[in-house]
Design brief:
Number of strands: 10
Number of helices: 11
Helix content: 25-40%
Strand order of the largest sheet: 2-3-6-7-8-9-10
Structural class: alpha/beta
Order of helices and strands: EEEEHEHEHHEHEHHEHEHHH
Number of domains: 1
Oligomer: single chain
Shape: globular
Length: about 300
């Protein structure tokens, strides 16, 4: 793949109000774009609508908001943001590889500690371990929650669907480090890809790895194919898994898979979550002294699509 282009820009605002999502109020994104190149990424839609490129060149350009920390410092002094929960990295991973140089995410975390703002984030990067000191402090002062995106623990499949990301087991080890430091951290298996990661064995493997690495919670979400994302993802399916393409075309006339499929998938997920002790939505559980054993299974049920 071509080397990504890095573009330094400045921003007028660092904190943005999120509309239409009651559980998510304020978002921060120190970077624009993403070099992970995940084949299912929802951010493709934002890139195309912002006229920053096409589906085909997604993942080749990253925007770095060089004044992000200074702008955030000014905004967090506003009374309306005192004590407000902030979500870091809603449109892109806050731990892009260039974070090692620019340290914008670390600067944001330091400010949240200073102002005692509770926060949460989603990442695919083990670089988050670098900031375990700030996350632990924030967990003590207010709250800090990190969701580690783990789509699969099948390493062959991982290289195909998430070619620019860190090995999922490196992410899991990073999660365990955060847990040992007192940070609430868990696994989000999202999206679940029909025909690729929706089998009992695939979901159970991620749940087992989450439990073995002391995840505080294990959550999932089905694949949603918004405009522009659909063309991007189905192009990938046509290239890599052409036998699956007709099934996807039938199942996704719109953005969502059929309701019957989603209901059966959720039933499957609920059984697996119960098997591995993930009984609540965001349960806070102590790290187990031994990994949970793999359950015995009967014949695998494959959901039709």
């Amino acid at each position: 793949m071509p080397r990504p282009e890095y573009v330094e820009i400045t921003c007028k605002s660092a904190v943005h109000r999120v509309q239409g999502m009651p559980y998510l109020k304020w978002s921060l994104n120190p970077y624009g774009g993403c070099v992970h190149r995940c084949r299912f990424c929802f951010a493709v839609q934002y890139r195309v609508l912002a006229e920053e490129g096409t589906q085909q060149d997604f993942g080749t350009r990253l925007f770095i908001k060089t004044n992000f920390v200074d702008v955030l410092a000014r905004e967090l002094r506003r009374p309306g943001l005192q004590g407000e929960h902030l979500t870091l990295g809603t449109a892109t991973d806050p731990y892009q590889p260039v974070e090692g140089r620019y340290r914008l995410t670390r600067g944001a975390l330091a400010l949240m500690c200073e102002h005692a703002n509770p926060m949460s984030m989603l990442t695919k990067s083990p670089l988050v371990v670098r900031d375990v000191d700030l996350l632990a402090d924030l967990a003590h002062i207010a709250s800090a929650e990190v969701f580690f995106s783990i789509t699969t623990v099948d390493l062959d499949l991982w290289r195909t669907v998430e070619p620019g990301t860190a090995n999922p087991f490196n992410r899991l080890r990073a999660m365990r480090t955060l847990r040992e430091a007192g940070v609430t951290a868990g696994v989000m298996m999202a999206p679940i890809l029909p025909g690729l990661t929706d089998s009992v064995d695939s979901i159970a493997a991620v749940a087992a790895a989450a439990r073995e690495h002391a995840a505080a919670h294990f959550s999932t979400a089905p694949l949603r194919l918004a405009p522009h994302v659909k063309e991007f993802y189905l192009g990938f399916i046509g290239d890599e898994y052409p036998d699956l393409l007709p099934r996807y075309q039938r199942a996704y006339p719109g953005a969502y898979a059929p309701l019957d499929y989603r209901e059966k998938l959720q039933e499957r997920i609920n059984r697996i979550r119960a098997e591995y002790g993930f009984t609540g939505h965001l349960e806070r559980r102590p790290r187990p002294t031994q990994p949970a054993p793999l359950p015995r299974r009967g014949p695998q049920l494959v959901l039709p699509l």
